[in-house]
Each structure stands twice: as structure tokens, then as C-alpha cells.
Amino acid sequence: MSTTILLDHLVNTSQIDSLRVAGRGGKEQDIAKVLLPSAQSVSSPLHDYEILDGETRYRIEVKKQANDQWFDIGKYYNLSGSDRDIVVFFVNHIDGQIQTVAAIKLGTLLDELLSDDSFIPYGWASDVLKIASELKKKCPQLQFKAKLKVRDFVASHRHLFQIFYEGRAI
């Protein structure tokens, strides 16, 4: 059973086969236009889009990758409660064809990564986030990246995600 993070009617997967998302960066707008049609683009360090549904405002960060995703972890130290509720919307693909669309709250993602020692070699440790945050304050343009194999993480932590789409294997 999938966890509810974002209401189903806010995500439209009916045209998912029309999306081609291969290549580095820049596909998030195409993804949002098709999969999150009511989303409005915003300029925020922690999220790309917002959806207002009645009185509920969803803040959404779109992440597109084949498997490896790099996170600028300096942004994630000491988040507020509302920032922990940001929806991370993962779109995994193989050769540009979307295979999985899954959502998780940012706080849940961070809690899981920071509580599992197997992620430490990739930079997922509380002290690393703190140091990255301190460096980012001194050098705002600095990016301090930690890797996550998203497809693998979703597969091994399905209970934490809301799965909106699973395609056929290529």
C-alpha cells in the first residue's frame, strides 16, 4: 500500500508516454507541465513548484534522473517543519522513457538517509550537512553534493513513497 503524500488528482500520468526526459537538466519544466498541470513555477532554494488545492499549498521539488541524483546538501540542514513537508517528486527514466514517478516528503527522505550508516560514504551524515550549511553561508554559490541512487532507494524503501506510475521494463 502506498503512502499518501500528494493527492492523486494533482498528478496526471495519462500523457506520460509523450515525455522524453533524457539528458542533463532542464526537463523539469516539461515534466511539471505534463505530470503536475496545476503547478506554478516558483523561485525557491528548496522547491521548484507550488500547487494550491483548496486551502492546502503543496511545495514540490522535481528530481529527474536515470538513477544517480546529486543533492546540494547544504540546503537541508536544520529545516523548519514546513520545509520538511516539501514533496520531493522523483521521475526515474531509462534512456528518456519514464519508468517510475514517486513522491516522498523531504523530511522523511532526510530522516531515512541520515539514520542509515550505509549512506554516510555518499555524504549523508548530520555533521556533513551542518558543515555544508556553514560553508554555504560563507560562499552562497558553493554546491556541496551528496549522491543518492534514487531508483534503488525507491525500490528498497517503497513503504515511504507514494508511487504514481510504474512503467514497463525496457
List keywords for this structure.
5 helices, 8 strands, 25% helix, two-stranded antiparallel sheet, six-stranded mixed sheet, globular, alpha+beta, 29% strand, 170 residues
Report on the structure:
The chain contains five helices and eight strands. The radius of gyration is 16 Å and the shape is globular. The model has no long low-confidence stretch (mean pLDDT 92). The chain has a domain of 111 residues. The longest helix has 13 residues. The strands form two sheets. A six-stranded mixed sheet has the order 1-2-3-5-6-8, sandwiched between helices. With 170 residues, the protein is of the alpha+beta class.
User: Regions with pLDDT < 50 over 5+ consecutive residues?
Assistant: none
Helix fraction, binned, reads 10-25%
Estimate the mean pLDDT confidence: 92
Q: SSE order in H/E notation?
A: HEEEEHEEHHEHE
The main sheet comes to:
6 strands, mixed
